[in-house]
Amino acid sequence: MKLLKQLCEIHAPSGEEYRMTEFLLKYIKKEKKKWKTEPEIFYGEEFQDCIVLKFGKPRTAIFAHIDSIGFTVRYQNQLLPIGSPDAEIGTLLVGEDSMGPIECSLSFDNENHAFYNFGRQIDRGTSLTYKIDFRDSKSFIQTPYLDNRLGVYVALQVAETLKDGVIVFSCWEEHGGGSVPYLAKYIYENWKVKQALIADITWVSDGVEAGKGVAISMRDRNLPRRKFVNQLIEIARKRKQKFQLEVEGMGSSDGRELQVSPYPFDWCFVGAPQQNPHTPDEKVHKDDIKSMISLYEVLMKDL
Amino acid sequence: MKLLKQLCEIHAPSGEEYRMTEFLLKYIKKEKKKWKTEPEIFYGEEFQDCIVLKFGKPRTAIFAHIDSIGFTVRYQNQLLPIGSPDAEIGTLLVGEDSMGPIECSLSFDNENHAFYNFGRQIDRGTSLTYKIDFRDSKSFIQTPYLDNRLGVYVALQVAETLKDGVIVFSCWEEHGGGSVPYLAKYIYENWKVKQALIADITWVSDGVEAGKGVAISMRDRNLPRRKFVNQLIEIARKRKQKFQLEVEGMGSSDGRELQVSPYPFDWCFVGAPQQNPHTPDEKVHKDDIKSMISLYEVLMKDL
Amino acid sequence: MKLLKQLCEIHAPSGEEYRMTEFLLKYIKKEKKKWKTEPEIFYGEEFQDCIVLKFGKPRTAIFAHIDSIGFTVRYQNQLLPIGSPDAEIGTLLVGEDSMGPIECSLSFDNENHAFYNFGRQIDRGTSLTYKIDFRDSKSFIQTPYLDNRLGVYVALQVAETLKDGVIVFSCWEEHGGGSVPYLAKYIYENWKVKQALIADITWVSDGVEAGKGVAISMRDRNLPRRKFVNQLIEIARKRKQKFQLEVEGMGSSDGRELQVSPYPFDWCFVGAPQQNPHTPDEKVHKDDIKSMISLYEVLMKDL
Q: Which SUPFAM superfamilies does the annotation name (chains A, B, C) (predicted)?
């Protein structure tokens, strides 16, 4: 879990993913020699801060977003949300501006507007993220930003043995999107890939429990094509994978942007459930991490 | 009206349009020999569950969505809406799961959450639609799903005599869209078609009455380019068509996705008005169906 | 300021930009001979009512939207908003229908629905805009539609000395967009341009004052890529430009559509702040207009 901890500690809210990009490029360039198949790596200005890995002859792509929620410093101590953070008064936030490193605490006024408490003014536009407190117990990992550092981690585990497939590290997922449209265009136009799995983190709910396996989400706010979802479920059953079926009316993912892209993508959200989403206390059962990696390995083979 | 009744009876909520696709393909392949111009048929994996018909040298496309509203079964008897159904307690819903056919009734809890009453648990993710009660009276057709089986029906009537044009059967219109982007791309890039008529059903309103003719919608939540709308109105007047002008602030259609597509589409919603939209009692005046077919025939010639 | 007044007086709400298009084409064709670099002009059916000017070897595009907010006449004296107008009872609205020119006044019923007072019925679908009252004082310009006639004006001033760059006049910005997707596609696919500056008008706020210089908006509802925004700020500082930093949680612009386009655009909103946005009394400090022109000149050179 050392890698997962490292990923969580990188400051990379939506729009400022470049630190994560740098870490991943360094990691991938070093590790790929040990992987079963060495992928081609696509990145640079045409990809903004995204990375695409191409293994063999791909049929299916894994999308893992590398951005996180957080806050932007405004003026008069005000904070604006990046994505939809859910944190209490006193939560520790970290960042850096022209004066140096920052560790401040979150507060709210009577109208529930967020602001910061700190000994000095912070530069306008500075981004702040939750201070990492990585808790590794017998059964659970608890830390800010399992959403979606865990999706990135799973993708990197699957990369080790992947023969044919694409892994996409996308940006801005937590705040309006914007990278998936050109990433979808690239992988469809170059390799005709139009099957996608969204490696992201979902919620423990009335119907999905911690420790009962990765969730295959049959729908959220968006409706993936049922034929594709059924195909996934059939593979998971045939290959005796541990999994749960989620059926949600809310929430969205990189899948939404694939759905409305000008390419006929089929997609499905497949991810471990967590408690306390978007808080500094996101918590995932270790068995569900294993189950997520296992199901991705199987799906990338059989789809 | 036998064909319209058949179309209404097909279970095809957003995301599960494939039964309608199969019916239409069979119907078109059989009937097209009798049509004035035999169209080329485009379908298959690159089109998901959509169908495109190309007649002669097309200048204008008709878009008719083939999905309907409905519900998805969650857990603990909960139902999630597909699109925005508007139905009362006791409404009969039908579908099928691994245990067999389902006919259950709709209910609501105190917080207005939908659930089902049925003798057994229904599989997670099962979709349910209104039970069809097709009422054919002297002046009116009343049944669930005139929106948009009537649009599909009109397109199929127009197909019989169409010389030049495209007919597009699209998916997901009721729930966030997602097929129009690639359909627009296909017809623009291959045939330079950038004029579109949205064959869908609108509302009887303070300014639009049943029996007074098809509505040309000058705007809804979206604003089509006025120059194009004016051109339609001029043709309708010159050709002495019976029609009404609608001006709305709400509601949307496949036109929205054409508007924001990366192609310079002009579009206009042209459809019969109905009472009780999205309920099991949608009701359209027969004169307005005739008027809709007639106006489409004229527009496809003169545009 | 004669040109700015002329621009404000043109009736061109979203969806009906063609009068502005005609004015601009005439103006540009006449004036371009005096400009340092003569641009190529792209317009016509493939561009709907938009215009693209290409100067030299472009690296960066200026986007200035040419539409305005307003109202659409419905029936029974009702008005529907185009974009989000903010006006009081008694505001004078102008337009034209089949019976001739219109000058009517705005009213509201108890439920805050807009309607018009006029001696006769106005044709369905007629668009109305604020009557222009152009006020030119020592320090301020005050008039309806500084948003975005001032952005258009600035772009035309910058055009006079521009060597390399694109100027895009876009449509529908105030009401859902729809032209930026194909404009972005055009300039990226033909000239690989993927840097964009949004020449639009922002708000005077708690942190941005009138007369203190043009605002560089670090974010609004959308998050531009931070690396690009930082590059702009660095250039502005190095070149000793007068400017202010805005950090907002609301508001949007043509930048949103660039962000979600299937091209890897970097964008930033750079515009003068105004008081009373979307009212008939929009007001901008003259120093901020100068500062906006100056910063655009510098950015188009150095980016």
A: Zn-dependent exopeptidases
